[in-house]
Amino acid sequence: KKSGPLAGKKVVVTAGGTVERIDPVRYISNDSSGKMGFALARAARAMGAQVTLIAARTDEAPPRDADIELVRVESAQDMYEAVTDRWADCDILIKAAAVADYRPRHSAESKIKKSGDTMTLELVKTTDILESLGKMKDKQFLIGFAAETGNAEYYAKDKLVRKNLDLIVANDVAVEGAGFGTDTNIVSVYDANGLVLDLPLVSKDEVARRVLQLAAERVAGALL
Ligand code: PMT
């Protein structure tokens, strides 16, 4: 059993990019490497939490730590199911994963053959996992990420309210050193009252520690 500011707390972290199948060999995904989510899982563990890492497609292997429960998923729907399964006894949930907003309406069972000069893929909306959790929220502390390319503050605050989050971590992924694939990030964290943490370019490990410290203070505060 570990000690630390998150001892006794259950933390669920999602990481990576979801994979939405077109056919058995093709898919729609995004540039998430998984690094931000992995850093959060490691930091939560170091702070004493019991951690579940739900990882979609990632560039690197997830942390090898017997104390971090690893769940591999593929699509947004799989991630939705894995997260909701663990929701009831979760204390802090952090959605660092980049989840597809749309998936192909049909996923072909065998490889699609080349035919006409053009091809149209019809996409349908996926379930917004965070928004669904925000509606079910009870004791859970819910942290979302906002990956933006401009107007990060505006969009992040909108997501915080719309998805009923406790904190949102905004990163402008168009800025060098921030967002997808890098070992560093530049983030601003907001709660319902406004800016609560503004970090310059630092490692994703440092971002993870600072965000979890904020969560730990607030979750402990709520218990008093
Ligand atoms: O993995 P790395 O390479 O380290 O990159 C890190 C990162 C850029 C992926 C990460 O820092 C980040 O910003 N993650 C969120 C990416 C994202 O999907 O942002 P969004 O603004 O589209 O979504 C907002 C929030 O809603 C996110 O917490 C997302 O997980 C969640 N969401 C989105 C769509 C959906 N269907 N369900 C969701 O829960």
Protein traits:
single chain; 224 residues; alpha/beta; Rossmann fold; eight-stranded mixed beta sheet; two-stranded antiparallel sheet; 5 helices; 29% strand; globular; binds ligand PMT
Model description:
The chain is built from five helices and twelve strands. It has 224 residues and is of the alpha/beta class. The chain has one domain: 3-Layer(aba) Sandwich (Rossmann fold). The strands form three sheets. It has an eight-stranded mixed sheet, with helices on both faces. Helix 1 (35-46) packs across helix 5. It is globular. The two termini are 23 Å apart. Ligand PMT is lined by residues 32-36, 76, 95-99, 101, 126, 128-130, 144-147, 159, 171, 173, 179-181.
Short account of what is shown:
The chain contains 5 helices and 12 strands. By secondary structure, the chain is of the alpha/beta class.
Q: Please tally the β strands and state the result.
A: 12
Helix content range: 25-40%
Q: What is the percentage of strand-forming residues?
A: 25-35%
CATH topology: Rossmann fold
Sequence stretches where pLDDT stays below 50 over 5 or more residues = none
Mean pLDDT: 96
State Rg: 18 Å
Q: Total number of helical segments?
A: 5
**Architecture per CATH nomenclature, i.e. the level-2 architecture:** 3-Layer(aba) Sandwich
What is the overall silhouette? globular
Which molecules are bound besides the chains? ligand PMT
- Helix-strand category: alpha/beta
The CATH homologous superfamily is termed CoaB-like
> How widely separated are the two ends?
23 Å
Biggest sheet record: 8 strands, mixed
